[in-house]
Amino acid sequence: MKQNVGTLDRLIRSVLGLLLIGLVTTDTISWWGWIGVVPLASGFVGFCVVYALPGWKRNRVRKQENPGR
Predict the structure, then answer these.
(1) d(C-alpha 41, C-alpha 27), whole Å
(2) Residue 68: inside a domain, yes or no?
(3) Which residues lie closer than 8 Å to 38 by C-beta, 6 or more apart?
């Protein structure tokens, strides 16, 4: 799997996932908050299936400059 999720997107997904899981464990929201595992895993791995289906990539690949030229 190639990463298709950028750094900011990964951070947002991880925070959202942790927030939802935290709300479930404190009984603030019901069982549906366990869906937070999905964005947490996506943020950790850096791959999103929804982005992969249409071929989207939200991470920028930086080209290294040749210092010899």
Answers:
(1) 22
(2) no
(3) 17
Task: For residue range 10-45, list pLDDT tens digits in order.
Answer: 999 999 999 999 999 999 999 999 999 999 999 999
Which residue's structure tokens are 């982005």?
51
Q: How confident is the model at residue 64 (pLDDT cuts 50, 70, 90)?
A: low
Residue ranges making up the domain that contains 44: 7-52
Query: For the chain, how many structural domains are there in total?
Result: 1
Q: How far is CA 56 from CA 11, 21, 31, 46, in A?
A: 18, 27, 31, 13
In a domain, 18, yes or no: yes
36 inside domain: yes
pTM, 2 dp: 0.76
Structure token pair of residue 25: 């464990």
